[in-house]
Each structure stands twice: as C-alpha cells, then as structure tokens.
C-alpha cells in the first residue's frame, strides 16, 4: 500500500507523513528529498539555479520511479499540478489532500519565507492574497484526491487517525 500526501506548502505533508508512516508501520519518503538526493543540491537551490521547468521535469521522473512503493510518500506542493502527475498518483496510490485555511497556511509560511523560492520578491503584506490565489489555482488538482482532510482545529494524531480510517474505508 502507498499513501501519497498532497497539499499546499507548509500543509505538513512531511511531518504528518512521518507520523502516519510510523503508525501504519510503513516506510516514509519525501519526494523533494529524493529529488535533492538525486540532484545533489536542495530543491530551493535547484529551482534558483536551473529554473522551475527543469525542476518539474526531474520531479516527474522521480515521482514515476517512487509511485507504487509500499510507503507513505509526501509530494511537493506543486507536484500534482504538472504533467499527468496527479492522475498517475491516483492510479498507483491512495492520495490524501491535507487542506488548511488560507489564514493557517499564511501564518506557517511567514515563518519560512526565506526557504521558499516561490515567495522570492513577494511582499509580506501581499502574502495572504498571493497564497489565496495560488491555492485557488491548485485546488482543482488537490481536490481530485481520494480523500480530503480538513485539518484546521485538528491535532496531528486526529489527522492521522482520519487518514487511517479513510484507508480502511477505501480498502487500501
């Protein structure tokens, strides 16, 4: 069984993915980390030096290799929105969308602005509007997921429990 976690940046895909994997006694993998390992530089640096198009091509190649494994796999925030990535993930794994309010995402992103290349040049006062538009653009891809978890107001334990219940319900 493979569970893919999707959602906007800072949605907790990696943090929740590690906890979920532990609870389900599965390995955990982070797509961005796999890409960084292969490229031998951070995703942030890769995008800055080689551009987003080059990154998205490499991301697709690595994703296709990773799909179908027995694990919990955290995808990058934009991964589902490019090429056929979401459709292939839906065919080969159980996809869960970690959905948060714009307010929560903005408050999390504010703490990580310097490490997020997408926000280079975005004024902090424009962040809520920028994030809202970006999430709006990505939502059609995210909402294709087999299951959506509305995360605001829930603990990590509650979110993991909901995902585990959804897996059982969908006989994953």
Automatic annotation (TrEMBL):
Ligand binding (substrate): 32, 56, 77, 138
Comment on bound cofactor: Binds 1 Mg(2+) ion per subunit.
Residues passing through the membrane, by range: none
Binding residue positions for ATP: 10-15, 116
Any one annotated GO CC term: cytosol
SUPFAM superfamilies in the record: P-loop containing nucleoside triphosphate hydrolases (SSF52540)
Keywords linked to the UniProt accession: Amino-acid biosynthesis, Aromatic amino acid biosynthesis, ATP-binding, Cytoplasm, Kinase, Magnesium, Metal-binding, Nucleotide-binding, Transferase
EC number per UniProt: 2.7.1.71
Cofactor annotation: Mg(2+)
Keyword Cytoplasm in annotation: yes
Record's subcellular location: Cytoplasm
Listed InterPro entries: P-loop_NTPase (IPR027417), Shikimate/glucono_kinase (IPR031322), Shikimate_kinase/TSH1 (IPR000623)
Amino acids binding Mg(2+): 14
Top-rank taxon, per record: Bacteria
GO molecular function annotations of the record: ATP binding; magnesium ion binding; shikimate kinase activity
Annotated pathway: Metabolic intermediate biosynthesis; chorismate biosynthesis; chorismate from D-erythrose 4-phosphate and phosphoenolpyruvate: step 5/7
Assembly behavior: Monomer.
Role played: Catalyzes the specific phosphorylation of the 3-hydroxyl group of shikimic acid using ATP as a cosubstrate.
Family designation: Belongs to the shikimate kinase family.
Protein name stated in the entry: Shikimate kinase
Annotated source species: Phaeocystidibacter marisrubri
Gene: aroK
